[in-house]
Structures are given as structure tokens and as C-alpha cells.
């Protein structure tokens, strides 16, 4: 009985470890881009940026994995000029709050990988992937540019997949009036190799004129890619 009890306890111990460890385990990174005009239309901010900016680099599992690992701006001082331009806080351009939030929520989870196990590694790798992809360039080469012209979801997906070889996740801000291109996710495995993104079929609907949050664009509805001069 004693040995049986030991086996049971050992089994429970392994069960406990396996139930806790995977909580922070991830196998995919999601590089997420914002279109500033759509974002600011939702958040009541103003932006004169005419290129896609970074929203974040998100592991597909885990949120705020280490609350004691505080954001330290001095560790990314050499990246600040680049981050101000390509990873800005669109609501508060002079603030570092957005970076602090992304580090706390996502960076501390990404840090379980040796290649991302510091603030500098995490932010610099996100910038590296952002530049390597050149989302603006991909879309322009397929004649998908901000304008009064509307595009199909299929056209946008093909424009990106044609360069990356992987399916992106295209998200819109939805209203009864239209759907606006707002966020694009491109996915990588732990070795930073491109892979298909998963996408939910859910499309959220809101009252006329109201834009709230992003969800996967409706493939049956034309997509508006708002230009800088809008409004």
C-alpha cells in the first residue's frame, strides 16, 4: 500500500507539473500590424502615418507570464528611435506605456525562448521581422494601396501569401456602413519560419457608424483601405 501510495503521489506530481508548465508554452509567434488610419478612427486619435505600424509580437499561449519582470526603458535605448517610428503608441506618441504593456503581456511569455529572453532581444526581433516582411511593399506591389477603391479579402490575402508563402490573418473594423482594413497578423514558428495563421470565421457586427474592435474580415464584403486624407 505504501508503494502504491508513492506511485499515486508521483503520478499526481507529474500531473501537476504538466498542468502548469504548458500554460506558458507556445509554438507560434504572431507579428501584428496596425493600419493607423483605421485604428485612430476607432480610438479617436490622430495620425499622419501612411505606413503599417507594429502592434506587437505575440506568442500564441500565455499572457503576462512574469509580473515581476518589469519593463526597463534603458535596456532598449538604442532601439528607441526605430521604435518611435515603427512601433509608436498611436494614442500617446510621446509615451512608452504601449511598449511596457506589450512587454508585460506578451514579451514575458515570449521570453521562454532563448532567442527572446530579454527585453532587447524581444523588441529587436520584432523590428527585424517587421522590416524583413515589408508589409507596405507587399501590398503596393499587388496594387493594393490606401484609396477610395475597395478590395476583396481574397486579393489582400493573396498579395501577402504570394510573398510569404503563408496565409495571413486579415482583420477589419466592422460597422453597418462598411468594413475597414485595420490589422494584419503574420505568423512564425519558434524558429521564425513563416507559417499559416489560424483565423476564426466569426465576424462581429455593430450599429451604424460604430467601429469597435477588430475581427476577421468578411470575405463576402468589399474592404475599405482608408487613405491618410480621410476625415
Could you characterize what this model shows?
With 231 residues, the protein is α+β, with helices and mostly antiparallel strands. The protein has one domain (24-224): Ribonuclease T2-like (Ribonuclease Rh, Chain A, Alpha-Beta Complex), CATH 3.90.730.10. It is 35% helix and 16% strand. The chain contains seven helices and eight strands. It has helices at residues 2-20, 36-43, 80-86, 97-110, 119-133, 135-141, 153-164, and strands at residues 29-34, 53-59, 150-151, 169-174, 179-188, 194-195, 215-216, 223-224. Strands 1, 2, 3, 4, 5, 6, 7 and 8 form an eight-stranded mixed beta sheet that branches. Strand 5 (179-188) and strand 6 (194-195) form a beta hairpin. Helix 6 (135-141) packs across helix 7. The longest helix has 19 residues, at 2-20. The chain is globular. 32% of the residues are buried.
Element layout with pairings:
Elements: H1 2-20, E1 29-34, H2 36-43, E2 53-59, H3 80-86, H4 97-110, H5 119-133, H6 135-141, E3 150-151, H7 153-164, E4 169-174, E5 179-188, E6 194-195, E7 215-216, E8 223-224
Parallel strand pairs: 5-8
Antiparallel strand pairs: 1-2, 1-5, 3-8, 4-5, 4-7, 5-6
Helix pairs in contact: 6-7
InterPro entries: Ribonuclease_T2_eukaryotic, RNase_T2-like, RNase_T2-like_sf, RNase_T2_His_AS_1, RNase_T2_His_AS_2
GO biological process, one term: RNA catabolic process
Family: Belongs to the RNase T2 family.
Shape: globular
Strand content: 15-25%
Describe the main β-sheet briefly: 8 strands, mixed
**Mean pLDDT over the residues:** 86
Instruction: Give me the secondary-structure category.
Output: alpha+beta
Briefly, what CATH class?
Alpha Beta
Span of the ends, CA to CA: 77 Å
Amino acid at each position: 500500500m505504501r508503494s502504491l501510495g508513492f506511485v499515486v503521489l508521483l503520478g499526481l506530481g507529474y500531473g501537476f507539473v504538466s498542468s502548469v508548465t504548458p500554460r506558458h508554452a507556445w509554438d507560434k509567434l504572431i507579428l501584428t500590424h496596425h493600419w493607423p488610419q483605421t485604428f485612430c478612427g476607432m480610438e479617436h486619435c490622430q495620425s499622419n502615418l501612411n505606413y503599417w505600424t507594429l502592434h506587437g509580437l505575440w506568442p500564441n499561449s500565455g499572457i503576462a507570464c512574469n509580473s515581476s519582470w518589469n519593463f526597463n526603458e534603458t535596456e532598449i535605448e538604442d532601439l528607441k528611435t526605430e521604435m518611435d517610428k515603427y512601433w509608436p503608441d498611436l494614442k500617446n506618441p510621446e509615451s512608452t506605456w504601449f511598449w511596457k504593456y506589450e512587454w508585460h503581456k506578451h514579451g514575458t511569455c515570449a521570453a521562454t525562448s532563448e532567442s527572446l529572453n530579454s527585453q532587447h532581444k524581444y523588441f529587436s526581433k520584432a523590428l527585424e521581422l517587421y522590416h524583413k516582411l515589408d508589409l507596405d511593399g507587399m501590398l503596393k506591389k499587388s496594387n493594393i494601396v490606401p484609396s477610395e477603391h475597395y478590395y476583396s479579402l481574397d486579393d489582400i490575402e493573396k498579395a501577402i501569401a504570394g510573398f510569404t508563402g503563408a496565409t495571413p490573418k486579415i482583420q477589419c473594423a466592422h460597422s453597418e456602413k462598411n468594413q475597414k482594413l485595420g490589422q494584419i497578423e503574420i505568423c512564425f514558428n519558434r524558429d521564425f519560419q513563416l507559417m499559416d495563421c489560424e483565423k476564426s470565421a466569426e465576424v462581429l457586427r455593430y450599429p451604424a457608424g460604430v467601429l469597435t474592435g477588430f475581427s476577421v474580415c468578411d470575405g463576402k464584403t468589399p474592404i475599405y483601405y482608408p487613405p491618410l486624407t480621410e476625415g
